[in-house]
Amino acid sequence: MSDTTAAIPTTSQWPSLKDLTSQVQSGKVTAVELVERALKTIGEKQDYQAIIATIAERARARAVEIDKLIADGSHVGRLAGVPFIAKDNFLVFGADTTAASNILKGFDAPYQSTAIERLEAEGAICVAKANLDAFAHGGSTENSDFFTTKNPHDTTRVPGGSSGGSAAAVLLDMAPFALGTDTGGSIRQPASFTGIVGYKPSYGLVSRSGVIAMASSTDTIGPLARTVEDAAYVIDIMAGKDSLDSTTIDRDAAGYDITSPESLAGKKIGVIKEYMGEGLDAGVKKQIETSLESLKEAGAEIVEVSLPSLEYSLGVYYIVVPAEISSNLSRYDGQRFGFSDKSAKDLEASYVQSRTKGFGAEAKRRIMIGAYVLSSGYYDAYYNKAQTVRTKLINEFNEAFKDVDFLAGPTAPTVAFKIGENASDPLQMYLADVMTVGPSLVGIPSLVIPAGKVDGMPVGLQLMAPQKADRILLSVGATAQEKLSKEQK
Amino acid sequence: MADLTREDILQLARLAKLELTDEEIKKFQNELGDILGYVEKLSEVDVKGLKPTTQVTGLVNVMRNDEIKPYQADQQALLKNLPDRQGNNIKVRRVL
Q1: CA nearest A441 in B: which residue?
Q2: A341 phi, psi to nearest 5 deg
Q3: Any CB–CB contact under 8 A between A152 and chain B?
Q4: A146-152 — which CB contacts under 8 Å span 24+ positions?
Q5: Pick from A437, A457, A217: nearest CA to A316
Q6: Is A87 a catalytic residue?
Q7: Are A184 and A319 in contact, with CB atoms under 8 Å apart?
Q8: Is A108 in contact with B81 (Cβ distance < 8 A)?
Q9: What's the whole-number mean pLDDT along residues A95-119?
Q10: Domain map of chain B by residue range?
Q11: In terms of Cα–Cα distance, which of A195, A276, A224 is closest to A452?
Q12: Mean pLDDT over each residue of chain A, to the nearest integer
């Protein structure tokens, strides 16, 4: 891997999802060929450690089936034969589902995630499982119990996280899109660090059934892709109510597929003052300002907006989220699935030893924080207080959206950091989430699009819209990406 | 915030069903102190008149019909992940 960036293709081997599907449907290319193309690329680029496991056998069998349906003239779906990669916290048949954790090593999913089922119903084929920070706890993939994924732009740097494997896989052209999860920035920050598109939908828009829970009040599912159009196409297929996840909301009656992207003209974009000040790297700031200037040229009105409570969003996040993690991870008890320590002499010891040997350092840290903030005597001071400050934050966002159509800012305070740079200081690592946790706590959709580079490393512009305004955010976001990509040429 | 005491950490570990080494206890005393010190910033926020957030979608009483439906996975698919079993039952270590 001496020539590190050679693996990043200048032109993708994957046309847009719509073109790819119509090529399969018309017989110009077969599903089998697409699956082989994806598996070949995955094999060639395994040094980046983006992938935990391939699903070769099942993917090949599904491709044969889809090609047969096409040959018979039968109906095939809107993603017929299109390969994709899922973060390894989605339950998928054909390979273990581990969430990159030792405690789930060898776990064979008894059913599939709703998101996977919906994509498969349209003919998509999952070819591999991508690396992540174990249980999605982290922003670099360094917390994976297996290995750290390398940023293809510079292999001494992290790809971001926790969906770092998914982001690197898309950048390396292994598949036209990948699925990630975003609890506090886990789709958006790796999209920014690798220079691709990442989309965190409104809370509740995509069912979490069959996805390993991290923090249930902010967990969301979304795509990482090369274009906003492709991301919207995938959202259109996954979105909507699911009886297996009672937090799901109705989909927009008009859907999310973009047929003609909406113009930026007359759109009012509020730049979040608190995201542009202290702590923001000067190079990233300049890149974001240049991008906003381009959007202004395209007709958008750019104003400054202040959301004073954002200063506290990371504090709220690191109380609420560990609290929810500590409850969600209590199911890993060594009795029904996952690692079980056979040397335990009784049931209590079996719980303790299985958890102690099975969980990694970061999971333990978050369980401990969660146990603390939920424990009697501290509940009001921490958890209740945090949820009340969260209300204040939500009110400020709602107020801001009365005046502006979208909010904007950077995705992270810096470009991708070096592997190991933040590993010894968990608080420093948590600060990397400072610009993404706000929208997560509020439950609004947030889109990241490439906004140029600083010293060769990508920067992502974050665009946010009111809750459930996913359709307009994606449509205008597609126009914004088009405009910014022209500037970057 | 000052570091947590050794007793604090041991009590949390008991609640969380984790066993910690001496080294981990020391590390958590320090790290949890740092993190809790950071989140203590929230105490300065004026939240008079505000209620804690419990959910963000506004959905209320999501009900389903009380009907028996077959479970999405078959029994053997669920049983195959059991660490230990006897027939179709989960086998656990002795309780007493």
Answers
A1: B56
A2: -80, 110
A3: no
A4: A146/A52, A146/A98, A146/A100, A147/A49, A148/A49, A148/A419, A149/A48, A149/A49, A149/A50, A150/A47, A150/A48, A150/A49, A150/A419, A151/A193, A151/A194, A151/A416, A152/A4, A152/A5, A152/A7, A152/A8, A152/A48, A152/A194
A5: A437
A6: yes
A7: no
A8: yes
A9: 97
A10: 6-44
A11: A195
A12: 96
Taking residue A146's Cβ as centre, other Cβ atoms within 10 Å add up to 17
Nearest to A368 among B16, B34, B96 (CB): B16
**Alpha-carbon span A185 to A409, nearest angstrom:** 14
Q: Provide the terminal-to-terminal Cα distance of chain A, rounded to the nearest Å.
A: 27
Helices B22-39 and B6-15 cross at an angle (nearest 10°) of 90
User: What does A2-68 look like in DSSP terms, one character per residue?
Assistant: -SGGGGS-SS-SS--HHHHHHHHHTTSS-HHHHHHHHHHHHHHTGGG--EEEE-HHHHHHHHHHHHH
Q: How far is A408 from A269, CA to CA, in rounded Å?
A: 7
Q: Which class does domain B6-44 fall in?
A: mainly alpha
Phi then psi dihedrals of residue A407, to 5 deg: -110, 155
In this complex, how many residue pairs, one in chain A and one in chain B, have their CB atoms less than 8 Å apart?
171
Least confident of A93-107, A181-195, B62-76: B62-76
Q: How many CB atoms lie within 10 A of CB A255?
A: 16
CATH class of A4-266: alpha beta
Q: What is the reported pLDDT for B2?
A: 61
Of residues B15, B31, B43, nearest to A426 (C-beta): B31
Residue A32: both structure tokens together: 């089998």
- The answer to whether A422 touches A429, Cβ cutoff 8 Å, is yes
Mean pLDDT of B68-94: 90
Contact A164, A297 (CB under 8 A): no
The answer, yes or no, to whether residue B76 has pLDDT greater than 70, is yes
